[in-house]
Each structure stands twice: as structure tokens, then as C-alpha cells.
Amino acid sequence: MELVDRRPDYLAMVKDRQCHIKRSSVQARQRGIVIRNMCNVSHIESRLNSSISDGLGKCLKLRIFRAGRNNLSGILPTDFSNATKLEQISLPQNSLSGDISERIVNLDSLRILDLNSNGFSGMLPISIELNLGYNNLDGNFSVLDFSKLSQLTKLDLGGNSLSGIIPRSLYSCKSLKAIRMSQNNLEGEIHPDILLLKSLSFLSLGHNRLTNLTGAMKILMYCKSLVFLAFPGSFVGEEMPDNLGMVDFYGFQNLRFLSLAECELTGHIPAYLSKFEKLELLYLGNNRITGSIPSWLGNHRVNSSCLQIGNLTGSIPVRDS
């Protein structure tokens, strides 16, 4: 499992039956994707360019529409919400723009909406699997109601301009496995209700205006499924949590990646990090941490080259062979 925050591909591809499309159904022209006579088509996977014409709404059996990494531009078709059997819309890394229609919530079968790395703007609609990172979405994230999205498994809204706090209704989505809200304008503290997400393994909230790092760590240490935790550029100017309140520490036992880089944290490297038995990557660069480099690093599996010594004294211990 690769534990780096590089826009992970969250798509759970539908492996259901597929239908080949005849030339009479789709025309590839310089001006874009032209759709006609497709009432019986269940799957479209395209490598065309330019724009997408209206006509999707007539594809009454269409389940999958994929056309990522092309040169598509313009807006989404106005009638796509009529294709009520759609399970997946995947159009990442294009040049599409405009608003995302609120009518998308009428697609009751939709499980994957991947519009990553386009130029969409306006307010945010809600679906089942949301992959809307690196667009121009804005608005108050706090007012969104996730309470009816019991099947939501992955939420990627990184690289937008969303503000407010994380709504508590998000924690009612008990199927959530991955949340990425990095590079937004979120504020506030991590709420204890996040512990309701028993399957949460990936949490990336870096480069926001979050506060109370100590409180966040005291809560998240009980997320038993958590593997990836990234807070770079958040909790700016706070102190590195020195004591998480446990004599015998058993938190974060599955954590393999931890980033607290670029937070301007003060204090020193806490001893409890030595108890993170599965930790492999620890990023603490661009902070104001002082003190000596702990000796336990010589006997830990963590990759010490990620530490970026900074103001620390001493040398990185050589790991015992």
C-alpha cells in the first residue's frame, strides 16, 4: 500500500457487465462527443476530446460514463441527470468548468463521482463517493448535511476553497474509509464523533486553519483503523503534544504515515512516538522543534531521513542490524 498523499485513485471500478458501442451510437468528431441512439448502452469509456454534447439523458440504461484524462472542455451536459441508472461518472483531469448541477442528487444509483482536477466552481452537490479535489469549489462546508449518505465511503475535496468547520453529520457516514480535505480554509477542532468512523484509514487535513493539535491527537489515537494521518501546515504555531495522557500507550497501533510538517510547532520530539510500532514515514520538517534527536530512532522502523533535523541536536542513530 503506497502511503503518500498524491491524489490517490479512490475509484472502485465497476466490474459489472459491459456493452460495446457501435459507431452509429457515438461519433468522435473534432468538436467533441456526440451521443445519439443509445437507449440500450450500459457503458461508455471514451478517449475523445473537446466537449460533451447533450444526449446522456436519453441513455436510459447507461451505468458507467468514463472519459478521464482527455482534453474535454465546456460544461457538463444539462440532461445527464435523466440517466437515472448511472452508477459512475468519471471525468478526471480534463478542462471542464461551470457549476455542478444540484440535480445530480437525483441519481439514486450513483456510487462514484470523479471530477478531480477540472475547473468546476460554485456550490458543492452531494453524492455517494465524492472525488472533487482540485477544482474551484467554495462555500460554507459546515452547512452540508451528510446524514442521508450512509453509503459514502470516500470523500476527496482537497485543493478547493471550502470554509467553515467539518459538519458533525459527516461522522454519521459510518462507511467512510478515506477523507481528504487538505488545502481548503477549514477551521475549528477535530470532534470526538470522528471515532464513529470505525473503518477510517486515511485522513488528510493539511493546510487548513485547524486548532488544538493535542486534542486532535488524543481523539485520533483511538481510531484503530487509521493508517495515514496528514496535518502539514495546520495547527500553525502550536506546541507539539508532549503527553497524550496515557502511562501505557497503545494508540495509533496501525499508523504507518504521520505528517506534522510545516506547522511551526514548538517543543520536542515526544517519547510516545516510539510506541507507534508500525510507523514507517514520519514528517516533522519546517517546525521549530528543539532538543536532541531521540535514541529510540536507532531501533525503530521509521524512515529517519524524513525527519529534516532543523534545530535538533545530535546525529540520527544508526539502526541496529
Would you mind describing this structure in some detail?
This protein is mostly beta strands and 321 residues long. 2% of the residues lie in helices and 22% in strands. The chain has one helix at residues 213-220; strands at residues 26-29, 32-35, 43-45, 49-52, 64-66, 71-74, 88-90, 95-98, 112-114, 119-122, 130-131, 136-140, 154-156, 161-164, 178-180, 185-188, 202-204, 209-210, 228-230, 257-259, 281-283. The strands form 2 sheets. It has an 11-stranded parallel sheet, with no helix packed on it. The chain has a 10-stranded mixed sheet with strand order 1-2-4-6-8-10-12-14-16-18, with no helix packed on it. A hairpin with a 2-residue loop joins strand 1 (26-29) and strand 2. The chain is elongated.
Please outline the helices and strands.
Layout: E1 26-29, E2 32-35, E3 43-45, E4 49-52, E5 64-66, E6 71-74, E7 88-90, E8 95-98, E9 112-114, E10 119-122, E11 130-131, E12 136-140, E13 154-156, E14 161-164, E15 178-180, E16 185-188, E17 202-204, E18 209-210, H1 213-220, E19 228-230, E20 257-259, E21 281-283
Parallel strand pairs: 2-4, 3-5, 4-6, 5-7, 6-8, 7-9, 8-10, 9-11, 10-12, 11-13, 12-14, 13-15, 14-16, 15-17, 16-18, 17-19, 19-20, 20-21
Antiparallel strand pairs: 1-2
Describe, in short, the structure shown.
With 321 residues, the protein is mainly β. 2% of the residues lie in helices and 22% in strands.
